[in-house]
Amino acid sequence: MALIKSISGIRGTIGGKTGENLTPLDVVKFSAAFGSWLLEKNSGNKIVIGRDGRISGAMVQQLVVNTLTGLGIDVVDIGLSTTPTVEMAVVWEKAAGGIIITASHNPKEWNALKLLNEHGEFISGEDGALVLEKARKEDFNFVTVDKLGTYSVNDTYLQKHIDTVVNYPLVDVEGIRQKQYKVVVDVVNSTGALAIPPLLTALGIEEVIVLNEEITGKFAHNPEPLPENLTALSAAVRKHKADLGIAVDPDVDRLCFVCEDGSMFGEEYTLVAVADYVLSKKVGNTVSNMSSTKALKEVTLKHGGEYYPSAVGEVNVVDKMKLVNAVIGGEGNGGIIVPDLHYGRDALIGIGLFLSSLATHKNGIRSFRTRYPDYFISKNKIELQNGIDVKEIFEKIKTKYKNQPVNTEDGLKIEFDSDWVHLRTSNTEPIIRIYAESSFETTANNIALRLMHDIKEFM
Predict the structure, then answer these.
(1) pLDDT for position 48
(2) Band of residue 1 on the pLDDT scale cut at 50, 70, 90
(3) pLDDT, position 317
(4) Looking at 373, 393, 416, which one is the last position of a domain?
(5) Same domain, 380 and 398
(6) What is the mean pLDDT of the segment spanning 387-410?
(7) Per-residue pLDDT tens over the stretch 404-449
(8) Is residue 245 located within the same domain as residue 369?
(9) 118, 133, 157 — which closes off a domain?
(10) Residues whose CB is less than 8 angstroms from the CB of residue 40 and which lie 6 or more positions away in sequence, other chains included
C-alpha cells in the first residue's frame, strides 16, 4: 500500500493507515491544502472537479466537494468525465483551478487527486511543494455557515469537448467518414465509454464495437494500455474483421491502436504518427519526454522542425513545449498534447488526428505502420522497498558507465552508440522504470536486463 506525492498529484491506495495510503482523512487534508492555496492566490473561488469510473470515485468525490465548500469555494462538478475534459472545463468555467479524481492507468485499488491551475494545466512542482507544505502544517481556515461555498453539476462539457475535437481544423471528418471504418474500442470499464463511442460516431464512423463498456471501475484487465493487457482487444479486432482497434486508459488521456491483423501499432508510434500528420500541415517544433522513441526526432527533422526532449511527466513536457513553441508534443505512452487545443494529454484529439492521417493512406493500418521505423523499446520496472537510496544507486551506475554519454536531467539516461537506456523513479508508483531502445528487440531487452542487474547489485 502506498501514498505518493508528486508532480502527477496525490496518489495512493484506498484504505489502510492514514498518512500511508489515500484514506478519507488524507483526501480531506490535501483537498483543503489545495483549496486554501488557491484562495490565497486570489484567482477566484471556483473549482471544477470530475472523476473517472473507479470504485472509490464517488466516495472521494464527496469528500473533496464537502471539504472545498467548507472553505467557501464554489464547486462545479462535471461528474463522470475524462481528464482532458476537466482540464478544458476549468478554462470554459473561468475557474481558479480543478481537481481530477483519477489514478489514470493504475489498478482499481488506487485513486488520486490531480491538481490543475486556472489554465487547466497541472500545477508546477514549485506550486505543488507549497500545497504539500500547507497539508503538512494543516494550514486551513474553514468558513462560517453563512459563507459556505456552493455546489452545482454541469454535465455538458463532455459533449462540448467532442464538438471541439470534431471542429478542430486538422481533423478531417469527411475523409474519415468516406473510409467507412469498422472499429473495436476497449474502454476498460471507465469513462472512455462515455467519450469514445460518441466521438467516433461524430467522426462519421457507423460501426463501433465496444468492449468493457459498463462503468464499474472493476477493470476487466490491467488498465494500462500495454500489449500484454490488450489481448482481448486484438482477438476482437480479428473476430469482427475490424479495420482497427482503439484502447484508452481509465481517464482517457492515453491511447493506443491495434492493426487489422490484431498486431499492435505500438503505443510509442501514436505520437509519431500524429506528429507526422500535424507537421505535414504546419512546420514547427516537437517535444517528448526522454523515455520516448527517437523516431519522433527523425520525423520532426524530416519536416524541417526541431525536436526537444524533456524530463518525464506531463508538466515537464508542457513546460518544454511552451519554451520552444512546439506545435505538437506528448509522451511515448500514447499521450498526445495539441497546444492550440489545450496543454494536456488528450486521447480524443489524438483519435481525431490519427484517423485523419490514416484516412489519407489507401491501405490499412498495418500498412500505414510501415511508414515509420521499427525501433524497439524494452519497458521494465523494479519495485522499491522503503529505505532504498535511489540517488546512491544511480551514482554508482553513472560511475560504472562514465565513458558513455550520460544525461542526468531526469534520473539517468545512458547512450550506447545509436541505442539508449533511461532509468528513473516513477512519479506515480514506488518503482524504478528501466526503458531501453534499439533497432533490435533482443538488443533493447539485453540492455535493459544489464541495467536491471546493475540496479539490483547496487541496492
Answers:
(1) 98
(2) low
(3) 96
(4) 373
(5) yes
(6) 91
(7) 999 998 999 999 988 999 999 886 678 999 999 999 999 999 999 9
(8) yes
(9) 157
(10) none
Q: Flag whether 163 is in a domain.
A: no
Residue 79 has pLDDT above 90, yes or no: yes
Residue numbers annotated as active site: 104
Whole-prediction pTM = 0.93
Q: Looking at the DSSP assignment, which residues form a beta bridge with residue 307? A: 286
The reply to whether 402 and 368 lie within a common domain is: no
CA distance 135 to 36: 10
Q: What CATH number is given to the structural domain containing 412?
A: 3.30.310.50
pLDDT tens track for 274-302: 999 999 999 999 999 999 999 999 999 99
Q: Cell triple for residue 288? A: 517528448
Query: Do 68 and 211 lie in a common domain?
Result: no
Residue 162 resides in a domain: no
Within this chain, do residues 335 and 217 fall inside the same structural domain, yes or no? yes
Domain CATH code at residue 138: 3.40.120.10
